[in-house]
Specification:
- A hairpin with a 2-residue loop joins strand 19 and strand 20.
- This protein folds into four domains: 39-244, Rossmann fold, CATH 3.40.50; 257-314, no CATH class; 316-399, 2-Layer Sandwich (Ribosomal Protein S8, Chain: A, domain 1), CATH 3.30.1370; 413-559, no CATH class.
- Helix 20 (417-428) runs antiparallel to helix 21 (432-446).
- The chain is 43% helix and 17% strand.
- The strands form six sheets. A five-stranded parallel β-sheet has the order 2-3-4-1-6, with helices on both faces. The chain has a five-stranded mixed β-sheet with strand order 14-17-18-19-20.
- It is α/β, with parallel strands linked by helices.
- The protein has 24 helices and 20 strands.
Length: 560
């Protein structure tokens, strides 16, 4: 009998809705047990977007909050936390809880951002209107509550709003509060993008510092975000913080799906045979020692009848990757291209992000790409100076699609994809004139004279970058030994009936245009003289297009 597909919780980040409406649920309530067994005063979980951070904090909220405790207890019936024993369920419904998410508090300037915080905190206070009439609060406390509620709070009052709310709840209930803060760094990322970073950092340091460091009314706090902000950090004075990043072993299996969980999801929905395809597209993340699947993409994959697609990439803009590509130099161009081809780059491990530096510091950029999910650490090691390094690689086919799109857009500009497809089609079909014409337009429209200051490496990197779209149809080799030398670029077809291509590149920026053809012909002759086609022949390829390409500034000549 065919298994009926469950309803996937696409975009459902409220735990009560997920359980009450009988969506498919991957049980992560073991996290509650782990927190009860022993937690830090403040725990920060950093993970890429769409890895279940909001749902996880919502789960904690419904378990611990004393509001509607009996009603909420039913949500955990039959789940792992209930199976763990009554000693754990005694903690259910036992604390006042403040749950807030800053993911929507993102504006284009600092004035609007402060207004957004006023509205956000007013809405938060509305959840606790009973406090405005609580006899446990003084008149001064009730006046402060009303000020925040009516969006009249000054900057200093906004900064004190969370610690004061903790105190009010303690006075009312006689219990310390649990603080759950989702996407704490969303306003910081927006401030960096729109140019009010210093104002935002100073505010957030006071806003959260008061709530997390000197708050005697706080039981414990769990925060989530994409990264840990460093240096002038909101956490620089916080000595009770436990950062659990993607490189940490603690809680490594809580956010995202483990392989067993992903496989069970497929089996439960009658598509267990799709596991190899799922693994190819959405696996590859490494959190601590745990192999993790992207949960958003896995759910979308099953919901769309197992149609593989880059679902995660379409959920928001790739601002960080755009920033990297704005400042790409020849070295980074080669590194980015090598990543697309399955190779690695290395970076010093420093997970504390310094946003102003990511525009200039290549290591900070690669660390940011790792924390945001575009790269994974496949190996960590120490050098002789005891500095920690890691080797970084693209996690899976879904993320590789992002690199191909972003590199292509950077090189070609908006709307340039058709030109590049035309160029590559002409190259693999042996239409030399069309190939040269398209390549000439690439140089004319997409390359600056300043880019060609180091011609040999630049043009080689350019051609390698332009050919990333051939991945899947061709295995692209660069500077590989063959015959009596090393060819510049060769395309080994996956399908042996397809034509192969070999390119020999020459560059002489000061060469007159009329001399470029002679240089191209010299490059073509070198292919034959050095017998560069030896490796292609050895793999059984018969149809081989040979091109000698000569570059001079923004001009190109091609011989075939």
């Amino acid at each position: 009998m065919q298994t009926k597909k469950k309803t996937m919780p696409i975009g459902v980040d409220n735990f009560k809705d997920l359980i009450a409406k009988n969506y498919y649920f991957v049980d992560k309530t073991r996290f509650i047990k782990e927190l009860i067994d022993g937690h830090s005063a403040v725990t920060l979980l950093t993970r890429p977007r769409r890895f279940g951070k909001t749902l996880t904090l919502s789960m904690l909220r419904y378990f611990f909050t004393l509001e509607r405790a009996e009603e909420n207890r039913a949500l955990f019936a039959g789940l792992d936390i209930e199976k763990a024993g009554e000693e754990y369920m005694q903690a259910q419904g036992s604390r006042p809880v403040i749950f807030l998410s800053l993911k929507e508090v993102q504006q284009g300037n600092w004035s609007d951002e402060l207004d957004s915080f006023r509205l956000f905190l007013s809405n938060l206070y509305q959840n606790y209107l009973f406090l405005s009439k609580s006899e446990a609060l003084s008149q001064v406390d009730r006046d402060f509550f009303a000020t925040v509620l009516h969006r009249k709070a000054t900057l200093a009052e906004l900064e004190a709003s969370i610690i004061n709310l903790c105190r009010y709840l303690y006075l009312h209930y006689g219990q310390k509060t649990i603080l759950l803060l989702d996407e704490y760094d969303a306003p910081i990322i927006a401030s960096w993008e729109y140019g009010y970073y210093k104002d935002c950092i100073l505010f957030m340091k006071r806003f959260l510092g008061a709530a997390l460091k000197t708050n005697e009314y706080l039981d414990f706090a769990v925060l989530t975000g994409v990264s840990r902000v460093s240096k002038e950090s909101i956490f620089s004075d916080l000595n009770n913080l436990n950062v659990c990043s993607i490189l940490s072993y603690k809680y490594s299996d809580i956010l995202g799906f483990t392989e067993d969980e992903a496989e069970k999801l497929l089996v439960d929905n009658g598509v267990g045979d799709k596991m190899p395809e799922l693994k190819k597209w959405y696996n590859g993340y490494q959190f601590g020692h745990t192999e993790i699947y992207n949960p958003w993409s896995v759910l979308k994959y099953v919901d769309n009848d197992c149609d593989p697609s880059p679902y995660w990439l379409n959920t928001s803009g790739n601002v960080i990757l755009h920033e990297l590509l704005k400042r790409v130099d020849d070295k980074r161009r080669r590194e980015l291209t090598s990543l697309v081809q399955g190779q690695t780059v290395k970076a010093v491990v420093d997970e504390g992000v310094i946003y102003p530096e990511i525009k200039e510091n290549a290591n900070s950029l690669y660390m940011m790409l790792m924390t945001t999910g575009y790269l994974k650490a496949i190996k960590k090691y120490q050098d002789q100076r005891h500095r920690n390094w890691c080797l970084l690689k693209i996690p899976n086919l879904e993320v590789q699609t992002a690199y191909e799109q972003e590199i292509l857009n950077h090189i070609s500009g908006r709307g340039g994809e058709v030109l590049l497809f035309d160029m590559l089609d002409a190259m693999t079909e042996g239409r030399a004139d069309d190939f040269q014409s398209c390549l000439q337009r690439v140089l004319r429209d997409m390359v600056s004279y300043h880019d060609t200051a180091e011609p040999e490496s630049f043009y080689h990197g350019l051609m390698l970058g332009l050919t990333v779209l051939m991945e899947g149809e061709y295995r692209i080799e660069s500077n590989r030994e063959s015959g009596y030398g090393r060819f510049d670029l060769a395309f080994f077809p996956i399908n042996k009936n397809s034509p192969s291509v070999i390119l020999e590149l020459k560059a002489a920026p000061k060469t007159p245009e009329e001399e470029l053809m002679k240089l191209a012909e010299k490059a073509l002759a070198q292919i034959d003289d050095k017998e560069y086609i030896t490796e292609l022949k050895r793999e059984g390829v018969e149809n081989i297009w040979r091109y000698g390409v000569a570059f001079g500034g923004k001009k190109v000549a091609l011989a075939m």
